[in-house]
Write a structure and sequence with these properties.
single chain, alpha/beta, elongated, Rossmann fold, 18% strand
């Protein structure tokens, strides 16, 4: 019996019937697979071919759409990742517990009073395997001061936290090697941005965490912090939401307060084509305005809460990031003490071999040594001359 002789009801039933199965299958792909759009695209292409068979008059359209969907699906599966590494955190106390836990102010923090083994791999090869020590406040292990030197607060993301580095290789530890008398409080964590840093100061949490009144606040920023503050990344959607209101950044809940919007964003970020090709160019002038204003208010808040405290911005400007130059130009207009890594640590900024983790890009201990030397020589009061450290020295 030819399909053309079927009743409309039968043909529509056979056309729409597969969606009863395709819907749950697509949902499962989105929930459990790292490249779900490859399989969703192939399933949709198969459905279009099936439709072309059931509706001969639309066969050409169905075949063309199926070929297009299959091509996009294959591109989705084959497109290389900018960071082709996989990370796994294992809690040494109970392996099943996640590294990040909910926090009423910042959204998430590293699990307090814990040790985690972090393994980073590429194509089955181990790039690094280190242990992170987290104190009871959810901060990377804080070294005890060896003297009565100035207090310094470190702000930032995984670059400052020490992604892929042992406790003795982080920027904090390298600063201690350079100036043992420094009293350091490291508020950085992976995936954080300017919005978490500002929330820390606005809430008074910094006073609770730091035993001494800070003399210096050093914020190590990457252009992606602008995207994180506006929710245009895949990291930490349950994080502080700020909006510009009459030129000021005002806190308005969390970025994932909109349930439907959060689900749609998560679905989009499962696509490699979207995350690697489209997302980096979605940042608007308004996003940049918000990102710059957050840094400006962060510097203002530091000065208001700690009179006499110096705020310094260490800015990474990777050449491949389209936000780098606009961000530099805008930051130069703020009057904030700006330090460009391209000027004092160009090898780290370029992610030269030895200065960045292989296949990943996060700074190595060698990069942290260069940054620590610069902070000790150019930012911290030189009443006690720093001992310049060589890369890898204890």
């Amino acid at each position: 019996m030819r399909v053309s002789s079927w009743s409309l009801f039968r043909r529509w039933s056979y056309t729409l019937g597969p969606w009863v199965l395709l819907g749950p299958i697509a949902g499962g792909c989105l929930a459990f697979l790292s490249t779900p759009w490859l399989w969703i695209g192939l399933l949709a292409a198969a459905w279009c071919l099936w439709g072309a068979f059931l509706w001969p008059r639309c066969a050409r359209l169905g075949i063309n759409v199926a070929v297009g969907l299959a091509t996009l699906a294959l591109a989705e599966g084959l497109w290389p990742r900018s960071r082709p590494v996989d990370s796994k955190y294992v809690y040494l106390g109970a392996p099943q517990l996640p590294f990040f836990v909910p926090h009423e102010l910042l959204g998430t923090i590293p699990r307090p009073d814990s040790q985690y083994r972090h393994r980073v791999t590429h194509a089955g090869e181990t790039i690094c395997e280190v242990v992170y020590t987290i104190n009871r406040e959810g901060l990377r292990v804080v070294s005890r001061p060896d003297g009565a030197g100035p207090a310094l607060v470190l702000l930032g993301c995984s670059y400052t936290f020490g992604f892929g580095l042992a406790d003795e290789e982080t920027l904090e530890s390298r600063l201690k090697a350079c100036r043992p008398d420094l009293r350091i409080c490291n508020l950085a964590a992976g995936g954080y941005g300017t919005h978490q840093m500002l929330a820390n100061f606005e809430s008074g949490r910094v006073e609770q965490l730091c035993e001494e009144t800070p003399r210096y606040v050093v914020y190590q920023m990457i252009p992606d912090h602008v995207r994180r503050a506006t929710g245009r990344t895949f990291q930490h959607w349950h994080s502080p939401q700020y909006r510009l209101v009459q030129g000021r950044a005002v806190r308005s809940g969390f970025q994932d307060d909109s349930g439907v919007g959060t689900v749609l964003r998560k679905m989009a970020w499962k696509s490699r084509i979207f995350s690697e090709l489209i997302a980096p160019h979605l940042t608007t002038a308004g996003d940049l305005d918000l990102g710059v204003q957050l840094v400006r208010q962060l510097a203002e808040e530091v000065g208001r809460r700690f009179p006499g405290c110096e705020f310094h911005l260490l800015l990474w400007t990777p050449a491949e990031d389209p936000l780098s130059r606009p961000l530099v130009n805008r930051m130069r207009q703020t009057g904030i003490a700006l330090h460009l890594l391209e000027e004092f640590a160009p090898e780290a900024n370029r992610q030269d071999p030895g200065y960045a983790l292989l296949y990943d890009g996060h700074p190595t201990v060698r990069a942290n040594d260069a940054i620590a030397n610069y902070i000790c020589e150019k930012i911290v009061d030189s009443q006690a001359p720093p001992a310049r450290i060589e890369s890898g020295s204890p």
